Every structure is written in structure tokens, then in C-alpha cells.
Amino acid sequence: MEKGGLPKTRLSRIVSLYLPFWPTERVRKRLGAGAPAPDAALALVGREGRRRVVLSVDLAARKAGVRPGTPVAKAQALHPDLTIMDADPQGDRAGLEKLALWFQHRIAPIVAADPPDGIVLDTSGADHLHGGEQAMLAAMVQRLRDTGITAKAVVAETLGAAHALARYGRARMLVVPPGGVVAAIADLPVAALRLPEGIVDGLHALGVSRIGPLAAMPRAPLALRFGPDVARRLDQAFGRVAEAIVPVRPVESVEVCRNFAEPIGAAETIARMIGTLVPPLCQLLEERGLGGRCFDLLLYRVDDRAEAIRVATAQPVRDARRLIRLLCEKIETIDPGFGIERMVLAASRAETMGARQALSLLGEADEPDISGLIDILSNRVGMQALYRCAPVESDIPERSFCRVPALAPDDARDWPDHWPRPTRLLPRPEPVQAMAELPDQPPVFFIWRGVRRKVKCADGPERVFGEWWKGDAELTTARDYFRVEDTSGERFWIYRAGDGEHGETGSQGWFLHGIFG
Fold first, then answer.
1. How far apart are CA 472 and CA 467, in angstroms?
2. Whole-number mean pLDDT of the chain?
3. What is 10-250's CATH number?
4. Would residue 485 be called left, alpha or beta, if left means φ above 0 and alpha means ψ between -120 and 50 degrees?
5. Ranges 261-270, 485-494, 500-509: which has the least confidence
6. What is the pLDDT of residues 259-314, one digit of tens each?
7. Which residues are in the DNA polymerase Y-family little finger domain (predicted)?
8. pLDDT greater than 50 at residue 94
9. Does the global pTM surpass 0.70?
10. Strand, helix or coil for residue 9
11. CATH topology classification for 254-352
12. Does residue 201 sit in helix, strand or coil?
């Protein structure tokens, strides 16, 4: 390895997604309207040798006492109304790989299926793009729940620890802090180490049922009795031995790669290699009439670990200079270890992109192109942190706008201009104490955040009614908005909840909703 290697700047963060009912939930999704009722117990069966046994169950069957490995005859005796269908292990694995590809496009570049019921993601350095690790896990679990898939998610420093906690831990979502792996898995059963069933039974015979006591035992007697598997799994769980994650790749992915005769590790060398990989990738995209929206740089180390860089763009691009700049900004996050022996650059998400005119005709002024700036900022702070507001057809102020991507195309809708709107709208209307002559007069004064403000002049009211078609609670609600200016010259947007006369229209309390510039 060359001198000048990069220092270790980030810890590995591995996410294990555990889908306990994946085969049965996949069957229900595939059958659609013809699937068994949601509360009907379902079991998928297959053969183990000459026996016909249950391979997968849903939640209702598990509550009835049916478990994987139970003979079919016994399962039917335990639950006479049990719905039995043939298992499809190959289809389950194919579906799991498709789901892994979906996560690869949206979460992180290194994603692999973990058959028969899991997915593994290396999210090192990518969590900030999704609002942090806790928010990232919540979004993944919620997205799966919305599609009818039950999931548990754990992020830890090693694949072994994340896998164990996802399947044997109690938490539905868990973020293990750096350095907390040993304490987190110490009380888990030894089966969580992915040991063969015979070794687990042998450890139980010795009176060892938890990982903590097992880790404290001498290695030599364990290796003599059970072979190298126990020590290897412990070292993988504690991060002493690397465990490779082989990412899934699309069948027709656009990618280029380069192998090195000698491992590389210096930042300057990595930047130079990025400069040699990007132009051929852009050429491939141009030949296919595509532009990339998401680019992944995978760096395979000599110790079987992989580092990854992901950059995204607001619009389809195949500009080599822009991509080189975006990728090189991420070099400082790479840990080359003892050296990098292979680099792969892939356009993990591409869209159709036609030819574009480079120069305008007849001296027309070019529209400023800010997409490069948008790309730089979004890859630093996250795509979700960069947005603009677009109008929504609603009279309720807090519902009259939505967040859209920074370069999303404009639609035909426009902001209402029949009444002035404040420059700053508060996230939630804040209650104020006010005195006013009812029913249609503005307040004489109001107290907001402990400061008494005397109203000098006002305009209004502007009455806004509830959206009755959205719920019974809004059938009679109303608000009266006023623009008021206090004696110091500051202007505010306040409203009374109600029409000032009828109690069913609102609480008749006063609220401050916005501030004019």
C-alpha cells in the first residue's frame, strides 16, 4: 500500500432489517383479493427430508402455537382452521432481492438480501441524508408497514450485532451507540450468533445460554470441542473480524470498474482514479440516452470490507466535471484500511435525458443554471433539508403550501393574492391574550410571549371557514384574521378562533399566526 493513506474518519454502521412474517405477507400481497382474511391463520409448508413441516407462519398462526418446524399434522391439530399453502423459497428470495434493490436506490449503496427474512444495509456516512439514524430507521419501518410488511430495524457497528438484536432483541427499532455492542448483545441467547443448531445444543448442555458468559470463556477448549465457528461468530459480532456485505446490483446497471495491481489509499490517488472512472460512465449514459440521478462509488478493501460514497443530483446529469467534484468532496469520509484493490462507479438511478442546446440563439439571455449549486448543498446537508414551497389549493393558511424538491417543475397553481399574507408563518398558531370589541373589531392590545403590545392600526377581518368536506369537526369552524400594527411599527397576523358570537364556531380565543416583514 502506498504512503499517505487516509485516517479512519467514520465508524461502520450496519442496519439489519428483520421481516419476521415476510413469506406469508408476500403471499397475501401476491394473492391480493384472493388472499385469506387478515385475521385468518396462515402457514406455508414444505418438506424437510421425508417430513412435511411448517416453514413459515403469520402472526395469527404464531399466537395459536404454530411454529416453523412443526409437523403439518400437529399444526392442524393445534389449529383446525389453519390455512395451509405451499411455500415458495425461491420466490421469497427473489422478492427479498427486489426489496433490497428498492432500499439501495433510496437509502444506501451497499444493501444485500439476508435470506430467508432479512435485509442488511451499510449506512456508514449516509444517515445524515435521511435526518439521522433514528429518523432513517423510523422511515424504513413505516414505509414497509404502509405496504403491509412487518419489520424490526437495528443499527450497530457490526453485522453480527445488528442481526442478533433485530431477531432476539425486544426493541422494534434500536440504535446501538458506538462502542456499545458488547453490552447490547451480552444478554442475548447464543443462538443469536448464527451458530449451527448442534453447537447451540452443545453449549446449552454445558450450561452456557447467553453471549456474555460465552465470550468470557477460554477460546481453546471451545475450539477443541465445537470447532472454529464459535470464536469466528464472536469476533464478527464484536468487530474483531470483518464480515463482507456483497451488495445487490441491478441486472442492467450502468457501471464502470477498475482493479489495482497494488492497493491504493492516498486521497490524491483516489481522486485521480475517480477522474478516470467518471468520463467512461458519462459516455455509457450518453450512449443509452440516460442521465444519472444517483451515483455510487464502491471501494473494495483488501480485508473484504467495502466503503461507499453516494451522491445524488436534482436533475439527470452526465457532466463529468460536476460528478468528479461531487465525488471528490466525499473522499474525506473514506477509510481505506490496509488499501483499496477495486473501485466500482455505478449510476444506481438513471432517467431518460435528451440532447440539450448548449448555446442560445440570437443573443437571447440564458436562464441561470443553479442545479450545480443545488447538488453541492444537498449532498452536504441532505436532500430533505433543501426544498422550496409550492402553493396548495386550500383556504386554511397552514394547509395552503407544501414542500417540493428545490428544482421541481412549476405547476399551473399560483399563490393567492386577494389578501396579503405574512412573510413568516409560524409552524403552529401561538395563543395570545387579547382584548377586543366583539364581534368584528380587532384587538385593542395583545400579549405575546410575555410582551404587551398596543395596537395602533388594523385591517380586517378576513373570515376563513373550515374545510367541511374533510371532517365533521370543520363543518362550523371559522377564523377571523386581522393585520395589526403595534406602536413600535411591527406588524402581525392574528386571528380569533370563531365568529365572536357562536360557541360552535370556535373557542373565541386569540392566536398569532404570522409576522409581516
1. 9
2. 87
3. 3.30.70.270
4. beta
5. 500-509
6. 999 999 999 999 999 999 999 999 999 888 889 888 999 999 998 888 888 888 88
7. 253-357
8. yes
9. no
10. coil
11. Dna Ligase; domain 1 (3.30.1490)
12. helix
CA distance 318 to 295: 11
177 preceded by a cis bond (ω within 30 of 0): no
Cell representation of residue 280: 467512461
Rounded to an integer, the average pLDDT of 357-372 is 61
> How far apart, in Å, are the Cα atoms of 107 and each of 103, 139, 206, 320, 348?
5, 10, 43, 24, 11
What is the torsional sign of CA 425, 426, 429, 434? negative
CATH 3.30.1490.100 domain locations along the chain? 254-352
CB atoms under 10 Å from CB of 446, counted, come to: 23
Q: How far apart are CA 439 and CA 479, in angstroms?
A: 12
Q: How far apart are CA 407 and CA 113, in angstroms?
A: 34
| Residue 429 in grid coordinates | 398558531
Q: Which amino acid is at 502?
A: H
Distance in angstroms (rounded) separating the CA atoms of residues 376 and 388: 16
Residue listed under C-alpha cell 411455500: 87
Residue limits of CATH 3.30.70.270 in the chain: 10-250
Distance in angstroms (rounded) separating the CA atoms of residues 152 and 169: 10
* 209: region left, alpha or beta (phi > 0 left; psi from -120 to 50 alpha): alpha
Q: How far apart are CA 148 and CA 26, in angstroms?
A: 9
User: In terms of residues, how long is the chain?
Assistant: 517
Q: What share of the chain is helix, strand, coil (3-state, %, to 5)?
A: 35, 30, 35
